[in-house]
Amino acid sequence: MRKSVIILVLIFTMLPILTHGQSNAGFLSDNVWYSKDPFFVGDKIRVYSGIFNSSSSDIQGLVEFYKDSEPLGQAEFLVEGGGNLVRVWTDWEAQKGEYIFSAKITKAHIAGKQDEALSALVGSQTTTSQRFVDTDIDGDGIGDEQDEDDDGDGVADSIEQELGTDAKIPNSETEFEQKLKEQPQQDFDSDGIDNDDELKVGTDPFLPTSAEQYIEAKRVSQDATGQNSYEIRDTVLKLLPDTVEESVKKADNAVAKTFGEYIKALEQKKQEVKGLISRRNQGIFLDEDKNILWQNAPAVAHHFYIAFLSTIIFSLKTRILIYLVTLFLIYQIIKFYIRKRRNK
User: Fold this and answer.
1) Which of 43, 81, 113, 318 is the most exposed place for a label (fewest CB within 10 A)?
2) Domain with 98 in it: what CATH number?
3) Helix crossing, 320-343 with 299-318: angle to 10°?
4) How far apart are the C-alpha atoms of 285 and 295, rounded to whole Å?
């Protein structure tokens, strides 16, 4: 259990004590606060009260704490005169529900003189403090009634209800991925974009995506995978038999997916080089880590490097090198086969 101290200062207007010269003693002035707010089911709470005594005599007594109208606990106090303050408290393990906390002085007398009761203090009550105690399954500090994702697994409760999963138990990514595969044409986050379309461009099908975000993600996805080159490929493949067309498409898609990670890395390197050129043009010769830039290399070398990276990226996106190598191998195989036939 998470241990926490929740200070509930129980308040009273200063009450005069008419006997033995006591004139200012009682609970603190009208104020209530907590050292932790809110607190949740299972938290061990310590409820505090502060009693002030500015009279000339020491005072003893008993404070009764209440949760609603039920006794929560008792605490004895002894507060010295002359403007001193003591704390009294009781412990409670929080349970779910709406509660009203308060306290009352049930006994009060001059220290060491139990027969000299201070009737002006006995029966004094604090102002009340109302709090709702909620559960917090994922421990994020937000009560489940206010939390849109109770179990903290990254999928909102409303969507889990639609999926049929338990919003109170964290589910694995595998379980959610399976749900997406089973219902690709659904729109779990109700953003107007089907699950399958969001997966293709890399947006989250469980979180609302704006039209601008989707368009940008789709553009980035096309740049990274060479999606536009598929149009040329598909036009050419339509001239081939269906069986050959499907086989070539599957092989090409696998190659494109493999190249995707390399393309992203090369694009990042390309942007880094552009950043170095920009910094050099501004007369800055140290990078952010205080390393010397390529200040001794001519500017043309940087531009040549960018051109080189751009060429590699283009060839990976369009898979031109793969196609050329494949055609060359097919040519060599056919050439070898024809030569072998002639030698027979």
Assistant:
1) 113
2) 2.60.40
3) 60
4) 7
In the chain, the number of structural domains is 2
- Does residue 75 lie within any of the structural domains? yes
Where a domain ends, among 75, 106, 133? 133
At residue 62, the pLDDT reads 94
Residue 287 lies in a domain: yes
User: What does the alpha-carbon distance between residue 48 and residue 67 come to, in Å, rounded to a whole number?
Assistant: 13
DSSP type of residue 228: T
Would you state the structure tokens that stand for residue 274, as one six-digit string? 């552009």
Please report whether residue 142 resides in a domain: no
Q: Give me the pLDDT at residue 3, please.
A: 40
Would 158 be classed as within a structural domain? no
Angle between helices 211-225 and 242-281 (to 10 degrees): 100
Q: What is the mean pLDDT of each run of 10 residues along the chain (344 residues)?
A: 38 35 54 75 89 89 92 93 88 93 91 85 86 92 92 88 88 83 80 80 81 72 54 58 64 69 73 63 51 54 77 72 71 82 74
Answer yes or no: are the C-beta atoms of 45 and 91 closer than 8 Å. Answer: yes
Residue at 153: amino acid letter = D
> What's the pLDDT score for residue 10?
38
How many helices (H) and strands (E) would you count in the chain?
Answer: 8, 7
Residues facing 117 on adjacent strands: 109
* pTM, to two decimals: 0.53
Peptide bond between residue 38 and the one before it cis (omega within 30 degrees of 0): yes
Q: Which two tokens mark 77?
A: 């106090």
Domain range for residue 42? 25-133
